[in-house]
UniProtKB/TrEMBL annotation:
<dbReference type="InterPro" id="IPR029044">
    <property type="entry name" value="Nucleotide-diphossugar_trans"/>
</dbReference>
<dbReference type="InterPro" id="IPR003329">
    <property type="entry name" value="Cytidylyl_trans"/>
</dbReference>
<protein>
    <recommendedName>
        <fullName>N-acylneuraminate cytidylyltransferase</fullName>
    </recommendedName>
</protein>
<dbReference type="InterPro" id="IPR050793">
    <property type="entry name" value="CMP-NeuNAc_synthase"/>
</dbReference>
<dbReference type="Pfam" id="PF02348">
    <property type="entry name" value="CTP_transf_3"/>
</dbReference>
<dbReference type="GO" id="GO:0008781">
    <property type="term" value="F:N-acylneuraminate cytidylyltransferase activity"/>
</dbReference>
Length: 270
């Protein structure tokens, strides 16, 4: 049987929304929604939370996740999500636990319906696998029937960058992605060589990518198996102004007065 783990990366030092990952969202801590969603997904074997924070660790264990504590050097918020993710994958491997696939989840995206994770993994498993060296990953996407991208050139001036009216342009949504474990390790080695160091920072990565993505390995060596999401699932928790929006969308479109039981009921049906 294929073993698929969910790995949720969550640090305690969020700045724009202090203590964001344990903030009450629709009755429970934010991170708990991702744990519940993963635990009720039929295709997921184990759920892990990588964190540097005692309260996040306690909440995660309370809701049934296994906790991976980050080393002290990783507590610095300048490191991007791939750094603690690599640490978590190595930690699981060093424990002698087998894993074929994993789903990396951001807790800041709680607007996942029951079934979204199973659909994500189904998309990964059902599409034809590309020939090496091309690697396959899986994401949720929102089809855009009319998409225009403009580049801000400063002083109130913008230039047309991209326009699509074919319905084939997709917006990334959902805050999670599925990878085959060996493929991810291989891709990270390539990205590290491109970047110039494994402990890469968010700022440094942004600077390299803004300078040009032509040499960026994922652009050249990955294709994405995608599954659709709804327009409202683009929202996530990054700013204080988004807290009320996310809660209202979650209640209106997912919970509908039933709370966490929505996910338990889905698990029983599947």
């Amino acid at each position: 049987m294929r073993i698929t783990d969910a790995i949720i990366t969550a640090r305690g030092g969020s700045k724009r929304i202090p203590r964001k990952n344990v903030l009450d969202i629709c009755g429970i801590p934010l991170i708990a929604w991702s744990i519940i969603q993963a635990k009720t997904a039929k295709q997921i074997t184990r759920v892990w939370v990588s964190t540097d924070d005692d309260e996040i660790a306690d909440v995660s264990e309370h809701f049934g996740a296994r906790v991976i504590r980050r080393p002290e050097w990783m507590w610095d918020d300048k490191y991007g999500a791939s750094v603690p993710l690599l640490h978590a994958l190595r930690h699981i491997r060093d424990m002698g636990l087998a894993m074929d696939l994993f789903v990396h989840m951001f807790p800041t995206n709680p607007l996942r319906r029951p079934g979204d994770l199973n659909a994500l993994l189904g998309a990964y498993q059902n599409v034809p696998k590309p020939e090496a060296p091309i690697m396959l990953t899986s994401n949720h996407g929102i089809p855009m029937h009319h998409l225009a991208v403009w580049w801000d050139r400063g002083n109130g001036i913008a230039e047309m960058g991209f326009m699509d009216k074919t319905g084939t342009a997709l917006l990334y949504a959902g805050g999670c992605a599925a990878w085959q474990v060996d493929d991810f390790f291989h891709m990270e080695r390539l990205v590290s060589d491109w970047y110039g160091g494994e402990r890469r920072t968010d700022k440094g990565t942004d600077e390299r990518m803004n300078a040009g993505m032509e040499g960026y390995p994922p652009k050249k060596l990955t294709v994405i198996a995608w599954t659709p999401m709804q327009w409202w699932q683009i929202h996530k928790l990054d700013l204080p102004s988004e807290i009320e929006i996310v809660q209202k969308l979650m209640e209106q479109y997912i919970l509908k007065g039933k709370g966490v039981d929505v996910y338990g009921s889905y698990q029983e049906r599947t």
